């Protein structure tokens, strides 16, 4: 329950310039990585996404979850 509250608080302050659902190009901007690595993270399901037609749609909350889970290692 505490983790859920933390994620809600982070959602309110992280990446406020981005919409709730982002593209792979926006993901690369958010993480400061190249487009190839961004596609790799999505295709390997390291960051959960949904493929709509030819594009991947990534909920911003999944990007935040990825970052918060990675920082615990």
Structure description:
With 73 residues, this protein is of the alpha+beta class. The protein has a single domain, classed as Arc Repressor Mutant, subunit A. It is built from 4 helices and 3 strands, in the order αβααββα. A 3-stranded antiparallel sheet has the order 1-3-2. The chain is globular. 12% of the residues are buried.
In brief:
The chain is an alpha+beta fold and 73 residues long. The protein is built from 4 helices and 3 strands; from the N terminus they run αβααββα. The chain has a single domain, classed as Arc Repressor Mutant, subunit A (Orthogonal Bundle), CATH 1.10.10.
List the helices and strands and how they pair.
Blueprint: H1 2-13, E1 21-22, H2 24-31, H3 35-43, E2 50-52, E3 55-59, H4 60-70
């Amino acid at each position: 329950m505490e983790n859920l509250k933390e994620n809600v608080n982070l959602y309110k302050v992280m990446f406020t310039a981005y919409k709730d659902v982002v593209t792979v190009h926006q993901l690369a901007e958010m993480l400061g990585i190249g487009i190839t690595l961004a596609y790799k993270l999505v295709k390997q399901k390291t960051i959960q996404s949904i493929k709509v037609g030819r594009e991947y749609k990534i909920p911003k909350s999944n990007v935040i979850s990825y970052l918060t889970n990675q920082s615990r290692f």
